[in-house]
Amino acid sequence: MRRPSSSIWFGHNIVLPADAAPWAAVVHGELPPLGTEEQRVVADAGPAFFSAAAEALDQSGTDLKQLTKILKERTGRKGADLFMPLRVALTGQAHGPELAPLLLLMTPGTARLRLVSHAQNP
């Protein structure tokens, strides 16, 4: 699958070159420890959600639309209850650029590792 250009998500999120560094780390690097809000989101979702998300990722690849379709069918979650835990697990942040382009920029292995880590470490 062809990866999109990073410029897809630069827009209003990145004004100066230094603004890109944290998002490059989100896509390619290690995530910092979760903040209080993010910890709550992960705890509320529970390990079973992240196990289901990892399995859905195995089927969908880094296509967020397909991933969320499969995950919705398996968990019955929708809206923020579906998207917020994914956002936090994949980016370490409750807020930020659109998740779909960020996920496309990640390798499937990186995305899977992040989901599995929350399934194993509630």
Structure characterization notes:
By secondary structure, the protein is mainly alpha-helical. It contains eight helices and no strands. The termini are far apart. The model is unreliable at 1-10 (pLDDT under 50).
Residue stretches low in confidence (pLDDT < 50, at least 5 long) are 1-10
Q: Please work out how many helical segments DSSP would assign.
A: 8
CA-to-CA gap between the ends?
32 Å
- Fraction of helical residues: 55-70%
What sequence of helices (H) and strands (E) makes up the elements? HHHHHHHH
The biggest beta sheet, please?
none
Count all strands and give the number. Answer: 0
> Any idea what the shape is?
globular
Classification by helices and strands: mainly alpha
Mean of all residue-level pLDDT scores: 87
Based on CA atoms alone, the radius of gyration comes out at: 14 Å
